[in-house]
Amino acid sequence: MWESILEALSQVTLSRGARDDDGVDQLHHFGTVALLAAFAALVGMNQYVGDPIHCWVPAQFADSHQDYTENLCWISNMYYVPMEEAIPFMKEDRMERDISFYRWVVVILLIQCLLFKFPNMLWKELRGYSGINVQKIVNMAEEASTTPPDEREGKVKDIAHFIDRWLSAYRVYKYNVFIRVREKVSGVCCFFFGKRHGTFLTGLYMFTKILYLVNVICQFVMLTTFLGFNFYSYGFEILANLNSHGEFRDFDHFPRVVMCDIEIRQLQNVQTFSTQCVLSINLFVEKIFAIIWFWLFFLTIATLINVGHWLYDIFFNHRRERFIQKYLIMLGVDDRSRERKLFKRFVSHYLRDDGVFLLRSVGNNASDIILLDLVRALWTTFKKQHAPPEEVVAPTTRDESYT
């Protein structure tokens, strides 16, 4: 059910076309980036096109003085003092509730966009070092699913040929004690990026997923530092407020009425005026960061579940075998002991972690029929190379494979 919900969200909100990652990754580097960029554009238009600030000035100020005051306050540090409290006399005491973050909201939103996009950029840059173009294989599989049946078989054989050449080229042929130890370690922990041990793609992908998880958690830390209040519990404060009052009420975290100190030089005298200003932009900023909190909270839960699911699939061999076995059963592979041993060798020594990961990527974009035909082609190639001659049989037809 969880995977169905994520898939539905990815179909509605995410980019179309073939992809070599899953729906949660797309929520990070596409959905979140689009959301934050839209917020940055909204705040930017309010700042640079509208009137983000209006200040009350003494009566002796002319209109030009008011414009000067508002422009000066906009680029200066402002502070918040509740109406029921007196304005502190010392400047240091006033700045304890500095709310100058409003000027940098656009910048921080763009930085967030970059941070959410960075893991995907890293994945796209490094995946080519695995020795195979993952995106090209996925695109070929998607194209094969929409081609006529008479052309589909040739395309699937081409894909299987590329994968077989890749699996054969990137493997260890000479063994010593060090290589055997490294192979065992890579089999247990894919994060060693063993290209010749079949764990490079899987390890890189899991590293990318962990970067997504670390990034979304660090977003709470960064926004707490930037906004100057406990952003970790901001969403819970909103829910408590809604439960108590039945409506969304303003918080002091984003005050609308603030104070600004300006200094006017008259000959050798410097006069200080404390003016009261209205920051209408905080009306939008408060709602924006409320939406961001709930989105980050949802994204954190989804990413934790997704990372746990992938770790379970990678570190337990029976999960990989079960994923491939369901297609071999359709192809008529029996459960004899010799055939069973050959199947385990097919998964653990021929496909390995990277091969299974590539097939999962194909299955996320193409139909089950294409993936079934691809597994059939790889299984036939593997049996020709490793099974005794009397066990190599011609692949069944598509109609026979479903009986």
Structure characterization notes:
With 403 residues, the chain is mainly alpha-helical. 65% of the residues lie in helices and 6% in strands. The protein is built from 15 helices and three strands. It has a three-stranded antiparallel beta sheet. Helix 1 (2-13) crosses helix 2. It is elongated and about 95 Å long. 29% of the residues are buried. The model is unreliable at 11-16 and 390-403 (pLDDT under 50).
Unreliable spans: 11-16, 390-403
Beta fraction:
5-15%
Q: Terminal Cα separation, in Å?
A: 29 Å
Instruction: Record the strand order, biggest sheet.
Output: 1-3-2
Number of alpha- plus pi-helical segments: 15
Order of helices and strands: HHEHHHHHHHHEEHHHHH
Q: Report the major sheet.
A: 3 strands, antiparallel
What is the 3D form?
elongated
Mean pLDDT: 78
Number of strands: 3
For the CA atoms, what is the radius of gyration? 30 Å
